[in-house]
Amino acid sequence: MHLKHILRVFIITILLSQISISAEFKSLQEKVNYFKNLYKVDCLSEKITDNFGNGFESLYGTRNMRTILYGIAYRGGSNNFYHKTDKRDNHNPLPPDGLNHLCMHGFSNAVYLYSKNFATADKIQVNPETGDTLYYHQNSGNDRKDLKVILLMVKEVIDNPDLGPLYLHCWNGWHQSGYVSAATLMQFCNFSNEEAYNYWMDNTDGVNKGYDNVKKMVRNFKKFDDISIDEETRKLICPCTK
Which residues contact 221 (CB under 8 A, 6 or more apart)? Predict the structure, then answer.
């Protein structure tokens, strides 16, 4: 058992040394390619970490993590209830190792889409190897003004190759993160409201009974006229939908 623990720590150390990145991307294409090759998922429904937080060891602390836009924005939950060493109630922000691992992966910002217990979380993480910083925010995105703030954060990551991705998360990585992700796909990937609704339903892992208010927000979303990208960028960052 002791040997297994040593090997696990060694492997994680190697992985972190490989993914601890500095802001050195010369183009959006380079950033997109880096994260596509790192996570090796192509489509919106594919998971980087699973429901128990497993699958990509150096991102432990996240849960049900999926791509929204390649190299730009990712969605998921916070791994609290299933955490192997720091178990706590599910209704919490990201655990410390989750924030740290996102920072080590070069993420620039994480957004907690609920408010419960956010005051207990660290708001800044610094990568000691690169000096890059991850900022932790709270924003539900429930009203149009707050949602626009999130979409402008996404746009900033698109426009600035040096800026790392966003992690948009709720508790399980299903409902609120699904809503904000659906809005992101409508805004930047030209999803229709019906396509976005089907996307929301398909990525709740079957837990989609009720949630009428969230479903209504997805069906009623209208794009912001002053936030846009060109067709070349759209083709580069929008994942496959199958």
Answer: 182, 183, 186, 193, 196
C-beta of residue 230 within 8 angstroms of C-beta of residue 188: no
The pLDDT tens digits for 85-132 are: 999 999 999 999 999 999 999 999 999 999 999 999 999 999 998 889
* 152, pLDDT greater than 60: yes
Tokens of residue 162, six digits: 């040096």
Residue 163 and residue 152: Cα distance in Å, rounded?
13
pTM to 2 decimals?
0.91
CA distance linking residue 13 with residue 25, whole number of Å: 23
Cα distance between residue 63 and residue 86, in whole Å? 14
Contact at 8 Å (CB) between 177 and 66?
A: no
Provide the 8-state DSSP code for 59: G
Contact 122, 94 (CB under 8 A): no
**Residue 166 near residue 153 (C-beta atoms within 8 A):** yes
The mean predicted confidence, pLDDT, of the chain is 92
C-alpha radius of gyration, the chain, whole number? 17
Q: How far apart are CA 132 and CA 123, in angstroms?
A: 14
Strand partners, 172: 77
Is 227:187 a contact under the CB 8 Å cutoff? yes
The CA-based dihedral angle spanning residues 146, 169, 40, 127, taken in that order and rounded to the nearest 10 degrees: 90
pLDDT at 23: 52
